[in-house]
Amino acid sequence: MDAAGRAPDLSGNPRRFVWFTVAYNARAYYPVLAILFIDLGLTLEQFVLLNLVWAASIFLLEVPSGALADTLGRKRLLVFSSLLMVAEMLCLLLAPQNGGLMLFSLCLANRILSGTSEASASGADEALAYDSLPEEQRGEAWDRLLGSAMRWRSGGTVVAMILGALLYDPAFLNRALPPALQISVALAHRLPVILVLIQAVTCVFITLSMVEPPRPAGTTGPTLKKAMRLTLDAARWVFSTPRPLVIVVGGVLIDGIVRNLLTLQSQYFRLIDVPEWSFGLIGAATGLASLAVPAVARRMNQRFDTPTNLALVGSLSLVILSLIAPAWKGYGVIPAMLLIPCMGYLGFTVSRALHAETDSSQRATVLSVKGLVFNLGYGACSLAFSTALSSLRPTRGEGAFQTLLAWQVPFFLIALLVFFPWAIRKWRRNPLPISADGSP
Questions:
Q1: 3-state class of 215 per DSSP?
Q2: % of the chain with per-residue pLDDT over 70
Q3: Residue 128 near residue 17, CB atoms below 8 Å
Q4: Where are the domains of the chain?
Q5: Distance CA 232, CA 217 (A)
Q6: For all residues of the chain together, what is the average pLDDT?
Q7: pTM: predicted TM-score of the whole model, two decimal places
Q8: How far is the C-alpha of 40 from the C-alpha of 248, rounded, in Å?
């Protein structure tokens, strides 16, 4: 309630949530992410290790940030996240090419700030949007809003992918520019970062315009002690309740290995001799294909239970990894284009299932527990990949990367064969619903 006793107007929050998720996630440097850092002067092993630092930052801050969102307010965390996004882009803009320790330090700062920003936004954005919807048929309204957000994000990704790759290629730009306006390679490689900096500033203004939904009595009180108690209660609930446990474990199993490969996708494209100017077109085609994912994912989740949907997306991921492993020149692009739609299907399934199981007063905290586990899994995959890459490099040389692409397939297959029999048994127990604080 405001000072006059009126309920706050939350009607604009769902629309602002869609704007925020597009501006925050559809980043123009994504199609060249790996080669952006490598062309600055880092090795592939350093890049993978920096992503481990990114995941570790989220691991340390994800759940406390979610708990603080449930105590201090979701809007405040989203504004903070947007400001951190501005800072991380400035680090990349200031990083000197082949700058040795200074380069690595600024790239390290970028990854830490990025992880902190992701942790602050994770859970808080969805929780604010979900609780801004009318209580009547809120679940159905959330399905529609989540589908709309995914479609707009896919559209934004199409634009970002095309612009990012084209801006990164100085040869393309200089062909289009008059001789007096020719740009250097170094400047071209910063243009996608400048574009994302503009998006970050946009996110600041979007989040400042959001309205904090009222929360149930007893859930306010901005203290770190309360935030940590919420954290422990939510984590205990997730890991002791069969259905949330299946959702989170199944999600992280698939997300970790697929996301690690997505992070290295531009390096994979170089491996199969795909020209850099086409990275954006490939990303755009992927984004267009992803427009159909929300509708398909919604129908599949309405028709089948969560373990079945996890089994479907896990099987699809295994097929994709198997087709990527041979690194076919040119044709290897086709299975790589299925990675993002696969992640979209997984994200819809996990989000829908976890929202249905979670109490509103702890929603951001539980979503942050999910985010923490997902990023811990991603970090573990990055560490394993980097360690194996360093070990193979002396004997396999440049072939070490392709060797690891093949090795990850049998490991993933074994993990799926272990997980799903356990998940089905857990899901069928169908315990009495309990709240996130552990009470019936």
A1: coil
A2: 90
A3: yes
A4: 13-428
A5: 20
A6: 83
A7: 0.70
A8: 36
Q: Of 186, 8, 196, whose CA–CA distance to 98 is shortest?
A: 186
Give me the helices (H) in 209-277, please: 224-240, 242-263, 265-271
- Residue 231, judged by CB atoms within 10 A of its CB (0-12, 13-18, 19+), counts as buried
- For 383-426, what is each residue's pLDDT tens digit? 888 888 888 888 877 788 889 899 999 999 999 999 999 998 88
98, containing H or E segment: none
User: For residue 31, what is the DSSP state?
Assistant: G
Please give the angle made by the CA atoms of 414, 417 and 421, to the nearest 5 degrees.
150
Which helix (H) or strand (E) is 74 found in, with range? helix 74-94
Q: Which amino acid is at 74?
A: R
Hey, which CATH number is domain 13-428, 1.20.1250.20, 3.10.580.10, 3.40.190.10, 1.10.260.40?
1.20.1250.20
Q: Are 372 and 58 in contact (CB under 8 A)?
A: yes
Q: Is pLDDT above 90 for 31?
A: no
Compute the CA torsion angle 315, 416, 242, 132 (nearest 10 deg). -40
Phi, psi dihedral angles at 288 (to 5 degrees)? -65, -40
Helix (H, G, I), strand (E, B) or coil at 148: helix
- Give the angle subtended at the CA of 96 by the CAs of 92 and 97, to the nearest 5°: 105
Q: Which position has the token pair 């539980």?
A: 366
Residue in 203, 172, 229 with CA at minimum distance from that of residue 86: 203
DSSP state of 213: P
